[in-house]
Every structure is written in C-alpha cells, then in structure tokens.
Amino acid sequence: MSDRKPYLVMKQVTKIFRSKRTAYHALDSVDLEVRKGEFVSLIGPSGCGKSTLLNIAAGLISPTEGSVWLDGKPVTGPGRDRGMVFQSHALFPWMTVLENIVFALECGKGGAAGRSEEGGWKEEVARRYLERVQLAHAADKRPHEISGGMKQRVGIARAMAVQPKVFLLDEPFGALDALTRSSLQEELVRIWEQDRRTVLMVTHDIEEAIVLSDTIVVMTSGPRAKVREVLSVDIPRPRDKQALLDIPEYRHMKKELLGMLLPKDSAVST
Amino acid sequence: MRGDRLTGVSGRGGLYSAEPRPQPSEQMVPTAVAQLWKSQAFRAAALFGGLVLALWAIWEAAVRLHVVSQLVPAPSEVAASAVELLKNPFYDLGVNDAGIGLHLLSSLRRVMVGFALAVACAVPAGFWIGMSPVIAKAVDPFVQVLRPVSPLAWLPIGLAVLKDADRTAIFVIFISSVWPVLLNTIFGVRNIPSIYLDVSRTLEAGRWTTIRKVIWPAALPSILTGMRVSMGIAWLVIIAAEMMIGGRGIGYFIWNEWNNLNLANMFVCILLIGSVGMVLDRLFAYLERRVRYERS
Ligand SMILES: Nc1ncnc2c1ncn2[C@@H]1O[C@H](COP(=O)(O)OP(=O)(O)O)[C@@H](O)[C@H]1O
Ligand SMILES: [Mg+2]
User: Fold this and answer.
1) Number of H helices, E strands in chain B
2) B15 assigned to some structural domain
3) Which structural domain range is residue B254 located in?
4) Ligand 1 centroid vs A61 CA: distance in angstroms?
5) Which of A19, A24, A202 maximizes ligand 1 atoms within 8 Å of its Cβ, making it the mutation to test the pocket?
6) Burial class (CB in 10 A: 0-12, 13-18, 19+), A51
7) How distant is the Cα of A64 from the closest Cα of chain B, in angstroms?
8) Number of Cβ within a 10 Å radius of residue A57
9) Quick check: A240 and A207 in contact, CB under 8 A?
10) Residue minimizing CA distance to atom 6 of ligand 1
11) Chain A contacts of B218, Cβ < 8 Å?
C-alpha cells in the first residue's frame, strides 16, 4: 500500500543529554525508516526515549550523532514539512480554537495577509480544517472551555493545516480516557484514509499501535535505547476494534508485543 | 441560601438571590430581615458600619475628654473640613492657594507621566533581557545594585540635573515604577512554557510573529502584575517626593497643612490619598484579570 522508497529516515541517531556533572545516554544508534504514506507507531517502555526520538525528527532537538532525512533532504531544524501533534495539545490558551489554526496558517509563506496558499481566506480555510475534525461548532471557544479530546482534535487540525509531508504525533491520546481515546483513534484513521499522509506516532498503548499502524517499531528500554524490532501489521483495513478481538493474528501480535514490553528483566533480577 | 457563602465576599447576588420570596406584607417583615441577616455580605456591611461608628465614638470621646493632644481634631471637625475642602476643590488663587482637587490632579499627572515613561522603557527592555541569557547576565549587576535604592535618593540628583521640580518628581516616579515592571516582564518572558515556543518553531513562525502572538500574550499577565505593583509604589513615593520639592501636589498640600497646624485637613488628605490609591489598584487588578488566560 505504500511506496517502497524510504521517505523519513533516521540514520544512526544517538542522543546524549549532557549537563554540568552528568551525561545521560538516551538513544544509541537508532535507525528508523518510514515510507511514504505509511503509518508507523513507535512503542517502547516509558522513559526509553520515544519523545526524544520524535523531537529529533521534528528538529526541536539536535542529535548528538547521526542524521535525519525527509524526502531526500537533511533535517536541520523545525519546519512546516513536519506537522507536530503534542501530547499536551499545546494550544495557545489566549487564542480561540479558530485563531489557533489561523495562526498556523499565518506562519506560512503567505504571511499574515489573510489569503492562504490554498486560496481563500485564512479563516475559511481554518474552518474547513475544523470541520474535518468535526469541531466547526467550537471555533470560537477557548481551549480551556473544551474537553481534552476536543483539544487533541484541534491539535490534529492545526497540524493538518500546515499540510506537512509527515505527521509526528507524540502520544496524542495518552492523556484521554479509554472511550474518548477509541473514538479519536477511529477519527484519526478516517482522516488518515482520506489522503494517506505519512505518520510517525509515539504510543505506549499496544492496541492503539496495532489498530492504527502499518508498521510497529519497538524500542528497548533506556539508557542506550535502540530499535528492538520492526513488526508489520498485516491485518486488513478497515480494522474494527471489536472484530479484531476475533482475529488470531491480532491476539498473537498483542501477545508478542506484551512479551517485549513487560519488564521481565527486572522481574528476574529482583 | 447556602450558595451565598460562596459569593458572599463579592456580595454579588447575595441580597437578591434568595428563593422566590413571599410577597412583602406586614407580618413578613421580620422574616425578610432574618433572610437578609443570613447573607454574609449583609453581615459584613453591618459590621463595617458598626466599626465606623465605634471608631468615630471613641475618637470623638478621646478628643472631648482631652485624652489626646489639643491639636488632634474630633472626627466631626474632620468631616466639616472634608466638606469645606471638597465643596470647591478646583479653585485656583495663585501659587500658594489652590483647591485640593488641583493638588490631587497635579500628583496624578506626575504619576501617570512617570509611570507611562517607565512602562514604555521597562517593557521593551524586559523583552530584550528576558529573551537573551547573555544580555540577562550582563545587565543583572545593574539591576541588583540599583533596585534596592530608594527612589527618593535620586531626588537631589534629579533636581541638580533637571533643574525643575516638576520634572524631578516625574523622574523619581519613573525610577520607582521601572523596576517592578522590568523584573516582572523579564520573569514573564523567561517563564513561558517551552512547549509554546516549540509550537512556534515547528510552524516556522518568524521572530516578530512569535514575539507578537506568543511571547507577548503569554507574558502580559505578568507584565500587568508588575504595573500594578509599580503603580502602588509610585503613589506612595509621589507624596514623599512632593513634600520635598514643594509647589503643587497632594504631598505638598499635606506638608503645608503641617505648617498651618491644620490636622483636620491632613486627615482628609490621608483619606483622599488612600481612596485614590485604592481606585488605582482596583483598576490594575481589573486589567490583570482581563488579560489572564486559563492554563489548560
Ligand atoms: N532535556 C533532557 N535532559 C536530560 N535528560 C533528558 C532530557 N529529556 C529527556 N531526558 C531523559 O531521556 C530519557 C528519555 O526521555 P523521553 O524521550 O521523554 O522518554 P519517553 O518519551 O520514551 O517516555 C528519560 O530518561 C529522560 O529522563
Ligand atoms: Mg514521551
């Protein structure tokens, strides 16, 4: 379903956090490839360096060693070709929902002139993105007036508004309750199916990874975290969460991932 | 009426938010008073009234019974003076004889000008310092040494350099106002959650856009807190400054009444200064609330 050619590539990425006295070797020679149109989940024990890796892909953190490539060009800093969705939604509280999206549009090449690259007024374009996450009715609300799930949808709409080559999502549903999370997962799939943009998503939720991804990248625990395994999910789409429970492949995969992620090493050592 | 307990202090709705009340009739009156008494705001107001009366009575008695110095006026005399002073506050019969309102306006003008100049300097400087660690380190010694100096210490220098009483007063107000605004602006700019700047960077927002649309609104509540503190200090300092430079101004007015040994007028002045200070503080508290945003 996706191009064979790697699109987002992380080569031998190492990250050492240094402070005055200490150094923490977080990532050690991580290699990662995401093909165009592919939905890749990054899963691993908490604290292993998933966010660090994603932030390096975003250009917000620079790697100690190694390099990041997107569509054949090196990544040297943050940019609009990568749309970031933060776990803590990171909407500006002093702007309305709509203004948050307009801000994302304004920062583009067209500047604050009102017209956006796609034609049409920025506000109309912003409204269209809100419609795509079914939040047109909340346009004039402030972030603190809407629910956590709605905030995260605005965050997704904001990332879509810059029309990035790849979406980077850092545990986008991590802070939500199970029901909201389920419905947002469905919504994300629905949106993703529309144009199949490339996605790299961090998660700690095994089911979420299986339901959403084409490929699951499992990391080892830190320090010196590496890629432990790359699994491809061969369950046909659309994947219905309830129907999945009856598919042996799903159960098998879940078991395999649980085996990798449960901290059995520590269980032995204690 | 349990809900009143929550709204009690502001008193909003306290007296009027009762359940549908029976139509007032002769025998209902005691019930209405009992209802009213349950309201916290009403009881506070009643207590306030009681305190005022008690203070008035004790003070009046102390003066009548010659417990205190002969110079101390009775509250009734103070009230009479207040009526006298406020009857025609804006008369102007030359340099040494002007209404209390003119003195007050003169002080307010100096405070506003000095304060505005301080804000105009301190806010941009605060952004500049707050956004660059290097500049912050370089400027820090100046701030550390100059901030603890009483603004009044600058007064003689002001007089020597500016050679003008009015400008010196404004200069002293400028010095008083500049530090809280500067420090709070630096604090506000420096303490912006880094995630907001990350968003700005991933969207490739320009430097100017980031300052205008992200850093400015994020720091604004802190800046207004600084302005509120500054205004409070400026209003304290202007009285002292005007006592020293003379001419026109509410501080000089008080000083002059000392020369006249008119304590009644001085008490009126003190109440007036306090009231104006309170109004200014309320104003900035309101602005502070307006720009505050809900962290979510
Ligand atoms: N700025 C930093 N300075 C020092 N250590 C850091 C910094 N950021 C992350 N770390 C450390 O790197 C490790 C990986 O963090 P993170 O990427 O947030 O993990 P994850 O997202 O997988 O839970 C953690 O042990 C964390 O303490
Ligand atoms: Mg994380």
Assistant:
1) 13, 0
2) no
3) 87-291
4) 11
5) A24
6) buried
7) 19
8) 25
9) no
10) A17
11) 92, 94
Assess whether B58 and B184 both reside in one domain.
no
CATH number of the domain at B122, please.
1.10.3720.10
Judge: B202–A84 Cβ closer than 8 Å, yes or no: yes
Closest atom of ligand 1 to CA, residue A49: 17
Please indicate, yes or no, whether residues B253 and B211 belong to a single structural domain of this protein. yes
Ligand 2 centre from A54 Cα, in Å?
A: 9
Tokens for B49, please give them: 């009234």
Both B62 and B91 in one domain: the answer is no
Q: Alpha-carbon distance A254 to A71, whole Å?
A: 32
pLDDT (tens digit, 0 to 9) for every residue of chain B, 296 residues total?
A: 344 444 434 444 444 444 555 555 556 667 888 888 888 999 999 999 999 999 999 999 999 999 888 889 999 999 999 999 998 888 888 767 788 999 999 999 999 999 999 999 999 999 999 999 999 999 999 999 999 999 999 999 999 999 999 999 999 999 999 999 999 999 999 999 999 999 999 999 999 999 999 999 999 999 999 999 999 999 999 999 999 998 889 999 999 998 889 999 999 999 999 999 999 999 999 999 999 998 76
- Do B195 and A90 count as a contact with CB atoms less than 8 A apart? yes
Q: Does the residue B199 lie in any domain? A: yes
What type of residue is B291?
V
Classified as helix, coil or strand, B51 is helix
Report the 3 state secondary structure along chain A: CCCCCEEEEEEEEEEEEECCCCEEEEEEEEEEEEECCCEEEEECCCCCCHHHHHHHHHCCCCCCEEEEEECCEECCCCCCCEEEECCCCCCCCCCCHHHHHHHHHHCCCCCCCCECCCCCEHHHHHHHHHHHCCCHHHCCCCHHHCCHHHHHHHHHHHHHHCCCCEEEEECCCCCCCHHHHHHHHHHHHHHHHHHCCEEEEEECCHHHHHHHCCEEEEECCCCCECEEEEEECCCCCCCCHHHHCCCHHHHHHHHHHHHHHCCHHHHHHC
In a domain, B283, yes or no: yes
Instruction: At A261, list the tokens.
Output: 């992620």
* Residue B277 is assigned to a structural domain of this protein: yes
- What is the count of structural domains for chain B? 2
Question: Does the CB atom of residue A24 touch ligand 1 within 6 A?
Answer: yes
pTM, two decimal places? 0.85
Q: Are residues B150 and B180 in the same domain?
A: yes
Residues B31, B162 within the same domain = no
Residues B57 and B204 occupy one common structural domain: no
The dihedrals phi and psi of A6, each to the nearest 5 degrees, come to -65, 140
